[in-house]
Design goal:
The complex is a heterodimer of chains A (375) and B (191). The termini of chain A are far apart. Chain A has 375 residues and is of the alpha/beta class. The longest helix of chain A has 15 residues. Chain A folds into two domains: 101 residues, Oxidized Rhodanese, domain 1 (3-Layer(aba) Sandwich), CATH 3.40.250; 268 residues, Ribonuclease Z/Hydroxyacylglutathione hydrolase-like (Metallo-beta-lactamase, Chain A, 4-Layer Sandwich), CATH 3.60.15.10. In chain A, strand 4, helix 3 and strand 5 form a beta-alpha-beta unit. A five-stranded parallel β-sheet of chain B has the order 5-9-8-6-7. In chain B, strands 1-2-4-3 form a four-stranded mixed β-sheet. Chain B is of the alpha/beta class. Helix content of chain B is 28%, strand content 23%. Chain B contains six helices and nine strands; from the N terminus they run βαβαβββαβαβαβαβ. Classes of the chains: A alpha/beta (375), B alpha/beta (191). Chains A and B meet through helix 2 and helix 3 of A and helix 1 and helix 2 of B. Chain B: This is Rhodanese domain-containing protein. Chain A: InterPro entries: Metallo-B-lactamas (IPR001279), Mito_Persulfide_Diox (IPR051682), POD-like_MBL-fold (IPR044528), Rhodanese-like_dom (IPR001763), Rhodanese-like_dom_sf (IPR036873), RibonucZ/Hydroxyglut_hydro (IPR036866). Chain A: This is MBL fold metallo-hydrolase. Chain A: Pfam families: Lactamase_B, Rhodanese.
Amino acid sequence: MAVIIMTAKEVTQRVFNKQELFLLDVRNENAFQDWKIEGQNFEYLNIPYFDLLDGVDEILDQIPTNKEVLIVCAKEGSSIMVAEMLSEAGRDVSYLQGGMKAWSEYLEPVKVGELKDDGAIYQFVRIGKGCLSYMVVSNGEAAIIDSTRMADVYTTFADGIGAKITNVFDTHLHADHISGGRTIAEKTNATYWLPPNDATEVTFDYQPLEDGNSVTIGNTTIKIDALYSPGHTIGSTSFVVDEKYLLSGDILFIDSIGRPDLAGLAEDWVGDLRETLYKRYRELSDELIVLPAHFMIIEELNDDGSVAKKLGTLFVENHGLNVADEEEFRNMVTGNLPPQPNAYQEIRETNMGKISPDEERQREMEIGPNRCAVR
Amino acid sequence: MEIIKSNITLDAKGLACPMPIVKTKKAMTQLEGGQVLEVQATDKGSKADIKAWAESTGHQYLGTVEEGEVLKHYLRKASGEETIDKKHPHVINNDDLQSKVASNEHIVILDVREEAEYAFNHIPNSISIPLGDLEKRMNELNKEDQLFVVCRTGSRSDLAAQKLAANGFTKVVNVLPGMSNWSGDTASLNL
């Protein structure tokens, strides 16, 4: 039987389409428990590859024959070994090209909407880590918001649709992933905007992003309006794009809200977070479509793979927006925080330009699930 | 930097997963129970995997030393020593030894595990003489001292205690179970 190669893009389609897939994850148990490929109709079996060195006979009866089977490991080597063994035993199986490393880095562009005068806004879904970044396109110009470190994906995409990147924004100094903002801006001569309150320690030049700043993309007026919305970090800034979309950064997610502790100041910033979510956002139109910088669980994906919901709906459905008592809110966001992301201090320092780890190390720093929210 | 002794060194540098483990498994077959294998690898994932593999196969993962790009993993082959009957009559449990250490009594702790085991984790100020070297290095010890002999599970220290008693050491006590369950302070060599 042939061993089939499955790409991260093909797995992503199976996630979006809620297809069935049987995953044989051959990483060690800790790695599997910490982080795996999530899909609503995926089934899992975790058997470390080193327990299969003598053969796969003992697990054959656990591998279904009526379902697509995908073998996954960290970098693909072990999954190829196991796939070949299963293939020799007469099974049709696939392995994930590039392993979890490729999964962590894969970005799927999804068009979330049209803007006026043929403009468009795209969401780049980093399906393996739950990071969401954006490209706003209008009249041959593009702006990028909260880009991941895979800078080439954005520049190639922009080339493909004939757009020139002119502005690059980060809503805040990220602690969970390495920003590609500076790299993209340098490559394309675009302006790199950062909230100055988050950028006090950065080692490079940037354009300070202030409340009320308005940036026009293309020669028609697709405006990106900055709204100071502290709480996840002291500088956190949201954007209203074309008076239609609210890019909420790490302040508000679909099913959760931002955590205030990743720069070490949970107690100080919880008040800001409350003010942003319960006052500043309340003043905005309910019709705005919220586009966050993360999703936490695969159920937050819409049918087309996008992550987006009306602000008015979130005010009803999102628990974090419905805690009337301030003390209770304070306890919720400071008392019950999930573990901090892997290497988050090192990631912050990289984003400040203080350290420049090589690509291998950057990859390693980002491995693992996203943990930017509190529910 | 201390050099850690091993019986076999395996070069798995430059190899990607799964090869470091495939080679480690093979190299293990050339060792006798209780001997130490050093695996040199550059694949960062090898650390977690070697540790997990050792746990699932019963070998003992001792630790990893990083030297630049190279990770040196130390493993001790499973020996089945835990099942041997212990014969030395004088024994002490971990807790009682720990109180003696804490009260600064003048005692001598002799660690008879392999040097590589000792290197990663031992009781502060204990003396390292592996069981296999005890015969020829016995003269480093003082027959009048009260000697507490420790290993991982109490089996090698039992053999060492018997050997010392047979050679005129009168105040020899075997520590049970030993380092596998030690909750007191530990030290490691500057690796």
